[in-house]
Each structure stands twice: as structure tokens, then as C-alpha cells.
Amino acid sequence: MSKPTRGNLFVVGGAEDKERGKLILRRFLDAAGAEAARILVVATASARPEKLLADYESAFRELGASDIHLCYQEQRADAQDPAVIALLRQATGVYFTGGDQLKLVTTLGGTGFASALHDCYRSGLHIGGTSAGASAMSTVMIARGRGRSAPRLASVRLSPGLGILRRVIVDQHFQERDRIGRLMAAVLRNPYMLGFGIDEDTAFIVSPDGRVEVLGRGTLTIVDGAELIGSSIADMKENEPIAFAGMKVHVLGTGWEFQIGSRAITVPHHHHTPASASDLITTSTIPEGDTE
Amino acid sequence: MSKPTRGNLFVVGGAEDKERGKLILRRFLDAAGAEAARILVVATASARPEKLLADYESAFRELGASDIHLCYQEQRADAQDPAVIALLRQATGVYFTGGDQLKLVTTLGGTGFASALHDCYRSGLHIGGTSAGASAMSTVMIARGRGRSAPRLASVRLSPGLGILRRVIVDQHFQERDRIGRLMAAVLRNPYMLGFGIDEDTAFIVSPDGRVEVLGRGTLTIVDGAELIGSSIADMKENEPIAFAGMKVHVLGTGWEFQIGSRAITVPHHHHTPASASDLITTSTIPEGDTE
pLDDT for B111-142, tens place per residue? Predict the structure, then answer.
């Protein structure tokens, strides 16, 4: 018997289309078995789960799924309920809605449900998470943060996440809420971690081999601190600007790929050459002097 | 007779302190000869120059200068006035106020005043420019742009600047107005150009040898596209997100240095080691697997 393969992980930036083409949900459902899929939607992050659950149920139903279960754990005891854990173990795809990632993680973390989630993912369960459900996927999670902030210690509060996605800190609603500063602040705390900022109605899909693909209307911003040559973070107060050198930033769209292990990027063929000349200026017309 | 040396260039992010310690203006005045300096303040960028000119006059006077001239060119003909050009030729330091960089450049560009400015800078005149006066220093200038925008073609409108600072596109009020997206968009148009985003009450000082030093309360963000391995910019519509890979970002504070020619960074000694561990996680406790 061959070793079971992990499932795919769909990390969605929030506000994914649930009414028209449903590109992301369709792709998730296809991975989970299309019409034969057994879907479990988890709205535990939300304070008002009823409408959310109904919306996802009708979206997946419109896409052809018929075996759809909905759940909401109000308290930690609910996440020990064998009936719900059985639903998870039977599912081929589980999808975590938006809400508050701290609510999601504090309710599920360390329960039988979370433990089964890891087991099932290892054996092939496909997992999706959007908005708060996206943030919660990582080992180190952005629990709170300030949008539109330059990198400062106070830009983010980190917390342990559900640990499905390691080596990556996820941020969502990314370009829409201008979160590059806070994602940089998170990566500066430990440049071993990659920062992945995913836009609304956009997903990154992590394959079992660590390959990352981008799907949807927006982009995936990757902040990579592996080549940092210096950082003032350890000496800074909460609200002082952090100085650093050598942070790499990639903004990937449809057709681009990234390997989490090697940090290698695959550029779509037609985008391979960087723009070499603008309408204003070419390298050949500028002398080598720095200034003047 | 030795070859004359260029002056220093002070590029200021706007809102520099003019009332208390006046760190930046003091340093500018010191470069220009301290109490022996002959200062010319140019408020041509501004729509209401009187108050601005008065504020700079009293600031420089409080710092010990006595030879201070103020000018404002309302139209291009004023920038051909030999009397004002003579003032510029006698000055040891000229300082350009804020306002609208397009107004500044369209009034001065191609005039006798602009031509003399280049001559004098080559022979040792120290030049300062703040806010609009900072933007106008570069060869390729950000004329208009959207703050808080992810990189898109529509994020910036470029225009020719006064051409004192080559190979660098300047943006100001930088962290305060979250302008990293538009600066990236400018650099993506031609990765030969460096993007320098300077914060309020902060200056970068360019020495004749291309060495860049940071002075003041905030930071200098440098966007370097030299190692870009791909970009979708040439295929994008005005408002589509640009995808790219390999952009480098540095955020430098007091004590950090940058060389425009070699793009080398000098890290202050105590910040040389990147932060290697956060309070949550260390590299040794995370297995090498990508996800799960």
C-alpha cells in the first residue's frame, strides 16, 4: 500500500466570490472530489455563523456538491463532540469561514477536532480557510495588527495558529487593507518565517510537495527575510520604525509559482524579462554618475 | 588648482522641524558654512509662499545665519531674472520648500535659474529640498500618485524632474502616507532606477561620492529592482495589480549608509545580526517540512 499523500491547502484572502463564477470554491470542490465530495464547513470563527453557513451551503450546492455538512463550535466542549469529529473524518474537504482568528484558534486549539484535522490532512483531506480561516492555518498566526502601518513592533500581535501551514505567516485582505508593513514586521521577528499576504477573492494553494500556486482576481505578496543583512528590531520600542536591509518582496499573480522549501519562483514565460525601459528613460542615456 | 567638488544634496521628507532642535536645517546650514553661509530659500513650489519663506527665514536666523535671501518665481520669466540668478550664484546653500513639484518644475525647468543650479551644484553649492522640493530633485520625478496603493500602473504619474539626483526616484511623506506601493510601481517601470522614500522630519544626504546618509526622526525606504527576475508590468492595464519577483526593500535609519553606485549598505555594528528568534519560535524547533 502506498503512503497516503497530504491534501491540498487553500488559503483564501477573504471575500471570495460565492455567487457568480465561484472560481476558488469550484477549484476547492474539484480537489475534494467534485460532485462526490463530502464537504464540511466550519464557521467557528464567526460571531454570526448562520448566514455564512447558509451562503457556503448554497454555493457548494450550486457547484454540484450534495454531501455538505455545516458546523459551528460555540465552546471548546463542542470541539470534543465525537459526532462532529466523525463528520470531519468522513469529509474530503473542510472549509473554514472568516470571523475572528483568535476565536477560531482558542476554541479549536488542542481539541480532538484540531487533532483529527491534522490526521486527516496528512491522509489527504483538502483544507480551505478564508480571511480569519486563512490566518489560522499557520503555525505562527497574526492575531491582531494594524493595517497601513510601517514595520514597527506594535504593528502585529502574534499568537499560535492551528499549525497546518508551517514556515509561513499568513495575512489576508492584503492589498485591500495595505498590510505589507505589518507582514514585514512579522517576518522581521524571525526571518526564518516567510510572510504570505493574500488578496481578497484570491487563493494560494499549497500542494503536498510545498509548491504554491496563485488563483483568483488579486495577488499573493511574499515577504522573504532570508537574505536580511541587518535589522534594528531587537533595539526598538513598540512604536519606533524598524530599520533593516535586504528584505525581498514578490507579488505573484495567476500563473506564477513558488516553492516553500527552496524559495524558488517560477515566472510565467512571457513575464520573464523585467521591464527594461520606461517611456521616459533608458539605461543607455544615463551616465554612470550617481547624482548631478 | 584642484577640481571643484560637488555640494551635498539634502532630500527631506517634509514637515521638518523648524522650531525646536531643527536637526536637519542645522546640519544643512553647517554644510553651507554655518554663520558664514549665504542661504537662498526658494518657495516656487508653493501657492502661498509668504508664510513659508518667513518660517524658513526665522529658522535659519535662529540657527545663526545672517545672509538669507528669499525668492519665489511666479512665472517662468521670473526664473530668467539675472538678479535672482546672481543671488543663486553667490549662495552657499539653496533650499527648496514644499508645495507642488509640478508647479516647481514647470516654472524652473529649462530656465537660466535651473541651469545655474546645476553649475553651482557641480562647483560646491549645497542643495536642500523638502516635500515637493524633494521630489523635484530627481531626474525622473513622481508628479502625482496614489498613497496606500498596491503597485499598479495607475499608482504613479512620472514626469521629468530638475535632474540634480540621477538614478533615484524620490518619494516623500513616505511612511506617513504609506507610499511603498507607488514607489514600487515607479521602480518597476525601469528597474535601473532606485526608489528612495523619505519620511517626514527625516533627510537623506547624498555626498559627492554617492554615499547616502540618513538623518532625523524617521527612515529612508529604498526599493531596489536590480535583482528582479520577472514582472508582468508590460501586460497590465492601468488598474490591474502588477506581479513581480525579486524586489529588494531596505528601511534605513540613523547610522545606516547606502552607496548609490554599488548599492552597498553599511549596517550599524550593533544591528548587524538579523533577529534570529522571536518570543514564539526558533528555527531549531520547527521541522523542515513545508506544511502540515
Answer: 999 999 999 999 999 999 999 999 999 999 99
Nearest chain A alpha carbon to B265: A245
Residues paired with residue B70 on neighbouring β-strands, in sequence order: B41
Contacts of B266 (CB under 8 A, 6+ apart): B256, B257, B258
Q: What cell numbers appear for B64 in the block? A: 545663526
Looking at residue B1, what is its pLDDT?
A: 55
The answer to whether A179 and A155 are in contact (CB under 8 A) is no
The answer to whether residue B135 is domain-embedded is yes
Any domain includes A74: yes
**Is residue A104 within a helix (H) or strand (E), and if so which, with residue range?**
helix A101-108
**CA-based nearest residue to B251, from B188, B182, B209, B204:** B204
Residue range B146-168, pLDDT digits in tens: 877 789 999 999 999 999 999 99
The x, y and z cell numbers of residue B101, run together, are: 513639484
CA distance B175 to A85: 47
Contact predicate B91/B39, CB 8 Å: yes
DSSP SS3 for A29: helix
Distance separating alpha carbons of residues B264 and A130, to the nearest angstrom: 41
Helix (H) or strand (E) segment spanning residue A71: strand A67-71
ipTM of the complex: 0.85
Asked if residue A253 is part of any domain, the answer here is yes
Q: Give the burial class of A227: count Cβ atoms within 10 A of its Cβ; 0-12 exposed, 13-18 middle, 19 or more buried.
A: middle
Chain A residues with beta carbon closer than 8 angstroms to that of B287:
166
Q: Are A175 and B268 an interchain contact pair (Cβ–Cβ within 8 Å)? A: no
The CATH number of the domain holding residue A267 is: 3.40.50.880
Q: How confident is the model at residue B277 (pLDDT cuts 50, 70, 90)?
A: very low
User: CB contact, 8 Å: A117 with chain B?
Assistant: no
Q: Is B158's CB within 8 Å of A280's CB?
A: yes
Q: Is the pLDDT of residue B231 over 80?
A: yes
Of A169, A208, A171, nearest to A31 by C-alpha is A208
Strand ranges for chain B from DSSP E:
9-12, 38-42, 67-71, 93-96, 126-130, 140-145, 156-160, 168-171, 194-198, 202-206, 211-216, 220-224, 230-231, 244-252, 257-259, 265-266
Q: Which domain holds residue A119?
A: 9-285
Under 8 Å between Cβ of B180 and A223: no
B127 min Cα distance to partner chain A (Å):
11
Domain assignment of residue A291, yes or no:
no
Residue A122 with chain B: CB contacts under 8 Å? 292
CB A66, CB A92: distance < 8 Å: no
Q: What pTM value is reported for the model?
A: 0.89
Is the CA virtual torsion B72, B76, B82, B85 positive or negative?
positive
Q: Among candidates A225, A242, A142, which has minimal Cα distance to A191?
A: A225
Cβ neighbours, 10 Å, residue A147: 17
CA-to-CA distance for A13 and A199, rounded, in angstroms? 5
Q: How far apart are CA A170 and CA A132, in angstroms?
A: 10
* B269 at interface of A, judged by CB pairs closer than 8 A: no
Identify any residues that bridge with B101 across adjacent strands, giving them in sequence order: none
> What is the number of domains present in chain A?
1
